[in-house]
Design a protein that fits this description.
about 90 residues, alpha+beta, Ubiquitin-like (UB roll), five-stranded mixed sheet, 3 helices, 5 strands, about 20% helix
């Protein structure tokens, strides 16, 4: 049985703002198309959200075009780190 529509979430967060948007997409929708449809790009215009890495339920997706979106997916857009975890540990040690 093929579902007509898939209910998913698109999530992105900065240090000061987190946004999770629930949308309904068709089964053939790609991750990039879902990001655009969600309108989250307008909320965070300072980031190129399409070019940032993504994951689904905290698992990195390396090929966004090949990933088949499933009902209930939470697509997370990962922003660039200001400093790496190693650099953060070094700063705390000082």
């Amino acid at each position: 049985m093929v579902k007509d529509n898939l209910h998913i979430e698109i999530a992105f967060a900065t240090a000061t703002l987190q946004q999770v948007i629930a949308i309904v997409v068709s089964p053939e929708t790609t991750i990039d198309q879902a990001i655009i449809q969600s309108g989250i790009i307008e909320i965070f215009p300072q980031y190129d959200l399409i070019k940032l890495p993504c994951g689904v339920h905290a698992k990195r997706i390396f090929d966004k075009q090949a990933y088949q979106i499933q009902d209930g997916d939470r697509i997370e857009i990962y922003r660039p780190l200001l400093i790496t975890p190693n650099q953060q540990r070094q700063l705390r040690a000082k």
